[in-house]
Specification:
single chain; alpha+beta; globular; 5 helices; 256 residues
Length: 256
């Protein structure tokens, strides 16, 4: 099954439930816990200890001791990410475990679209492969507090609840976010709109993809990758890097 995120126009409308009650949030957390309990991590993976931040704040600095991942990209440099374990436990556990077991090492960013996002996590490098640590697809974890802002680390999917190993990093800047807000039909709070205007991002992705991490260092590297020369991917989309963009290594550590 092809794992992609839509690159359509900024006017595309996607539903987002804003301001859910605490009762709904409690129900969601219980469902996530139940879902995870039913899934078994494949024996080939060793699950590392993951330390969550005490408070979920998407754009705050990583707290001391919090789990982070450093992504080394050949010829480009490093990007570092923190995670939202309390809001997206399945996606975080999946990504950090895959990273710590060397799953992503040597893989490429197979899909790159400047002022939108860069996508990787497929061992086949085609956009059609990859699997989760459970060997099966897992559910989306959408939260009003976490948005597809510039630097957001998100799960790529081919529809609701089809997450595997592919991920993307939002690269769109403030001018694109502003255009998206002006041309889009989604309802955002004043605070959410301001976050997009200040940070940048891609508003129309809200609600359809799990945001489970945020870049804390390496925006210059992200922009360099996004600006690489691309060619037709075979689908008519200008998104395949002419020269392979290789993830040399991902290292899991704790913020200091």
């Amino acid at each position: 099954m092809r794992k992609i995120i839509a690159a359509g126009c900024l006017m595309m409308a996607m539903s987002l439930c804003v301001g859910c009650s605490s009762k709904k949030e409690d129900s969601k957390e219980t469902t996530t816990a139940t879902t995870e309990a039913k899934m078994k991590v494949q024996s080939k993976y060793k699950v590392p200890k993951i330390t969550a931040a005490k408070k979920t704040d998407q754009l705050a600095e990583a707290q001391k001791g919090e789990t982070i991942v450093t992504m080394q990209v050949k010829g480009y440099g490093e990007m570092k990410f923190k995670f939202f374990m309390k809001k997206a436990p399945l996606a975080v556990k999946n990504f950090v475990t895959l990273a710590s077991n060397g799953y992503f090492d040597g893989q490429i960013f197979h899909r790159v679209i400047n002022d939108f996002m860069i996508q990787g996590g497929d061992p086949t490098g085609t956009g059609t492969g990859g699997e989760s640590i459970w060997g099966e697809e897992f559910k989306n974890e959408v939260c009003d507090e976490l948005l597809p802002l510039r630097g957001a680390l998100c799960m790529a999917n081919s529809g609701a609840d089809t997450n595997g190993s592919q991920f993307f990093i939002v690269q769109a800047k403030s001018d694109t976010a502003k255009k998206g807000l002006e041309e889009g039909t989604m309802d955002f709070t004043k605070k959410q709109k301001q976050l997009f205007l200040d940070q940048g991002g891609y508003p129309s992705l809200t609600g359809s993809y799990t945001v489970f991490g945020q870049m804390i260092e390496g925006y210059d590297v992200l922009d360099k990758i996004a600006a690489c020369e691309t060619k037709d991917s075979g689908s008519g989309e200008q998104s395949q890097p002419v020269k392979k963009v290789v993830i040399e290594k991902m290292a899991v550590s704790n913020a200091k």
